[in-house]
Each structure stands twice: as C-alpha cells, then as structure tokens.
Amino acid sequence: xxxxxxxxxxxxxxxxxxxxxxxxxxxxxxxxxxxxxxxxxxxxxxxxxxxxxxxxxxxxxxxxxxxxxxxxxxxxxxxxxxxxxxxxxxxxxxxxxxxxxxxxxxxxxxxxxxxxxxxxxxxxxxxxxxxxxxxxxxxxxxxxxxxxxxxxxxxxxxxxxxxxxxxxxxxxxxxxxxxxxxxxxxxxxxxxxxxxxxxxxxxxxxxxxxxxxxxxxxxxxxxxxxxxxxxxxxxxxxxxxxxxxxxxxxxxxxxxxxxxxxxxxxxxxxxxxxxxxxxxxxxxxxxxxxxxxxxxxxxxxxxxxxxxxxxxxxxxxxxxxxxxxxxxxxxxxxxxxxxxxxxxxxxxxxxxxxxxxxxxxxxxxxxxxxxxxxxxxxxxxxxxxxxxxxxxxxxxxxxxxx
Length: 402
Fold this sequence. Notes:
By secondary structure, the protein is of the alpha+beta class. It has ten helices and 20 strands. β4 and β5 form a beta hairpin.
C-alpha cells in the first residue's frame, strides 16, 4: 500500500522493497473525506518518447471496480503510475474527491506518500524479513481512524492461518492476497491494481478473483484495475474504461463499452441477467421476453445475477424456419449492421424480447451473399448452451444489486 507509508510506499510502488522499512513519513496535512459521493477525475498528458499519453476520464463511484482495459502498450499502466505519483504528467489534473493530487497549471503535485492511495502490482513486493502480520500492519494510518479493520481484512482475504509465516513460505496467490490486504489496510481513498494476477497461473487466478470481486462491496472502496484479460474484466468490472493509443476511447457499462476493445473481444457480446429455475433447467432472464440456457449454473440460487460472454465465433445464423435441433437458444431477431472484420464479416443481430441486446455473429462473405443478409432482414441467431461462457464458471455470478 502507498498511503501513509513513506519508504514502504516507494518500495511497494516502484522497485524492490527496502531491506529495513522506515517509519511512516510526515507529509502535508490531509483531509479525511466522507466516502459518500466520492469522485475521481483523471486528465494526464505525457510524452513518452514516440508515445503520447492523453488520458481523460472520471467516475462518481464511491465503491466498485472500474477496469482500465486495452491492448498491451495502450498506456494503461502509465495512467495508474501518473495517478499514484510514480510518474509526473506534462499537463493535466488528477483529483480524488476534493483532494487535488496533481494540477499542472497550479503547480500542485503531491508526493506518493501523501496521496492516500493503495497500490498492488504484478509482484507482491512484500518485506521478506517480516511476517505476514507485520507486513499487513506496516503503513497503517496513525493520524486518523482506520477505515478497514485488521480482522475484517484478514477474514475476507482468508489469510488468518498465514499471519505467522514469512513471504518465502507463501504461494504466489497467497502473497498477492497479503499484498492486497496491506494496501487495503492503509485506508486508501482509491485502490490501484496494475495487472495483479498477471504473474499467476490459471489456478491461482481462479483462487484470487472472488476476493477481488468482493473487496469493494465489503469495504466501500473504489478500485481502479488494469488488465488486458477479457475473462478478468468480466469477472470483476462494474464499469469499463477502454484505452487505445494513450487515449480513452470508451467508458461505461461492460455490456456496452466492451465493443470498443476491438479485435475478437470487441465483436463478442456481454449479457447480464437474473437466474431462474425451470424444473431441472437453469435459465438466465436477460429481458422481458428472453431467457437463455447456459451450462455451469447448477447450484446457484434463483435470483442470482449472472454475467455471460457470447463469442461472435459461436453464433450461427439461420434464415427461415429452424428445424428441431440440439441448440437450446434459437433467438429470433433482425440484422442491424454488417461490417468487415479481420476474419470474415460480423453481422449484428438485435434479438427479440430484450431491448438493447445485440449479438455479433462472425460469418464468411460467402455466407452473407448466399443468405442474402442485409440490414432489416428477419432471421434467427443460434447459440449453444455450452457456448455461453460464464466467467469463473458457476462461481462468479453477482449478487442482486451487485
């Protein structure tokens, strides 16, 4: 964590941790904010060799996960480093609530330790000679009440049995959980996470993702989370900010902003709905007249909110009556757009029964010609239940209101 901890913050935020941690640094007076209505705004311009960063976005969320997504080299990590104070923009303004962290025009640039931010990187950067308990305790604020209780953080992250161990005795996933706990216990106004799962294997990622999804709802702290993994962002994101070429090109709900990612992921559909039980079948109600069959939902209770990913490669189109087939989701609709893609063409189909739901279907140019596909044409989109992907399998549905 980097809020309220001087050299410890710099060790955690840039390079290896110091062999012997220093005490909390004395910085300028800080104002304790009422979390209700917390907003952060980012305008960061910086020339990095031949790369120009000009990122501008804001969020009114006082909790939840805002994912900063984009291809490698898009500028996501540079944005986080500017917010943290590890890099200084050439121009712009960065504020959390009514606290200005950086304002180029006014000559304001708070040092790292005074920004009241927590930060988690790909590697945990724990102090190797300290126990888990001491790593967690280091950097806790002493000039104001803690917003997060030690026992609460330990319980949520499931690290109570690790408190007496040192980092070398932990797995990669356990080290990252401790790093998240340390950042959280600094009582940050904003938690920054720069691809925190990138160095972990699939099993450790699956272990850690539920903790990440639960954090902002338990402690009401907003998280700005950088990733280029579609599966990760689908599991944790409440809001999506897409960065391309150093600029923000889209921001909003995951179901709509994902299309701005480009490539295969941008042609896929993300749907959200509520789980309904119909005898032995698990269905997801996406709209008033649309219920989808998906696999892997068994065991989840009725009413659970579910986020689903429907790849354009897995959507088949049929013109005319559809005979009895094994495909469970036969969805009437109409063509709204046809666009060339890196592979074939993508046909956008507005599905009946759920206003605003559009599925992409990747087909060949020959199929477009032979089926006579044009905007306005009525047809059916066919999606196998097994092709609807629920990120994290059945474990990452979202609670009502989440």
